[in-house]
Write a structure and sequence with these properties.
The protein contains 3 helices and 5 strands. It has 89 residues and is α+β, with helices and mostly antiparallel strands. It has a single domain, classed as IHF-like DNA-binding proteins (HU Protein, Chain A). A hairpin with a 6-residue loop joins strand 3 and strand 4. Helix 1 crosses helix 2. The longest helix has 20 residues.
Amino acid sequence: MTFTELVEELAGRSETSKKDTKEVLNNLKDVVIETTLDGGEVRLSGFGKFTQKNIKPRKNVTIGKNTGVDIAGKKYPKFKCFDSAKTEY
């Protein structure tokens, strides 16, 4: 399902305009991104939670040589589905 299809589906179910629904979804996305970038988490009851995953910096070792490459650490958003949402399938 694309973002546009999701907006249309939610607008139809909630009997609101597509414009208002799109604004709400964009605001939700912005809040989730800002919160996880700050190291927080967003929990949606009965659905799941968004957190930040941290990958530590490491060194890649080249086999057969005494050299290696430093790989920088990084952060990225992660979503974990709650068990109650998994049982819906």
